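Reposting from the mailing list since nobody answered there.

I have sequence plus structure tokens for a pair of proteins and want to know whether others read the tokens the same way I do. The first protein:
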Amino acid sequence: MGKMDGRVAIVTGAAQGIGRAVAQKLADEGATLVLVDLNEEGVERAASELSDATPVRADIGSEDDVQRLVDTTLERHGKVDALANVAAIVPFTPWDDVTFEEWRRIMATNLDGTYLTNRAVYRPMREAGYGRIVNVSSNVILAGTPNLAHYVASKGGVWAFTRALAREVGKYGITVNSVAPGLTETEGVLASPHAEAFEFVQMLQCLPRRGVASDIAPSVAFLLLEEAGWVTGQLLVADAGMSHN
């Protein structure tokens, strides 16, 4: 028996990286999954590798796409118990090059997407009197990491929004928490200049090795369990102790 048997969970950014690892962890716990990503081929592949998963191609920065995602989930499964909001764009842009267009591009997915997904699942969760939401932030909000000003701002917004929402929806049996990963070895990171930062980051960690996606997934999964119902409005930092000071 898994701890999420009978529970329906939406996972955004599920085609690869942390989102894919979260989907695997929730599947291991018995959850029925709706996997979401802009990468249609990738999310279909991820769903095919799990026993009870439905792939949905959607842009979480689009109100129409997000509503269609939740409608699809309700039509197929009748409820939404949990949301793992993992999808995000991680740029590498020096401050001098952050145009307003680039700023908005990051905000549209990372912050607008958090609002839209949280808002869309809230209504069925409120009606059911139960819900678990985890919005993935980042430990960069504690460090002010360079070349990421707009990303840091968006992820700081995710955390602040999570705290505020938890206060408003707790009376309906809904918890809202955030997980802040450190630098993690994912396909996206390895394909970016951030890949060069692992050696430096490991020197700052208490645990001296590279973080991988499966290191982050258990923290997200725990906060989505029914038994985590006394934890809400919290930031769980999963970064090998890099920011433990």
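The second protein, same order (residues first, tokens after):
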Amino acid sequence: MILLNGKVAIVTGASSGIGRAAASLFAANGAAVVLVARRQAALDSLVAEIAGEGGRALAVVGDVSEESTHREAVAAAKSAFGGLDIAFNNAGTVGAMKPLAQVEPHEWAEVLSVNLTAAFLGTRAQVPAMLERGAGALVFTGSFVGNSVGLPGMGAYAAAKAGLMGLVRGITADYGSAGIRANALLPGGTATEMAGDQAVREWAAGLHAMKRIAEPEEIAEAALFLASDMASFVTGSALWADGGNAAVKL
């Protein structure tokens, strides 16, 4: 089944991890994809990989905490592919790992900027383009951190990821009647660059009922569902893709 045939999607944080896996999966399902991240070489490699498999992709190099990056991505989607239907606002950072009272204000601001304010900036650029198409789907990568648990040293990250749920509900209230859907994807531990060394990954696996962490491709599959018309009546919600982390504490 080709779930995104004829659709145009933006994927942020596309140079690695969940974003890279989602961009490849979206392209394989028929979408033209605009890839956004800071690393030119990694994006160019993915564009070439997608093109080699018969897909369509282009790269926009930029920092998601800057409004101009999102404007450029939307402009690229419209000029190269004719419009915008889907945005997977996935880029994020853990930031400084320390107890909250030791977090410097600039460290707090950086974490919220990349994880939460960037999602707002993306929305602000993306929604008008989707309204031009008469519909659209926004997906935001949240986390089990901040939504089902707090973890030591991750207070700023938890606050930002919890804030995404408010953003999702706000978008739904403002634009649901106009055909714009917004949902949060809440992964558990995932084998990405942010996951730490093997010892940390083994500790994280123990938090999950399935006693393992996810592969990026597994989270990408959940993002594909939310982005596709299979989720046509799903909006304002959170999809847990966390191996049972939120359901149990063993």
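Reply #1 (J.P.):
I read it the same way you do. The mean pLDDT is 93.
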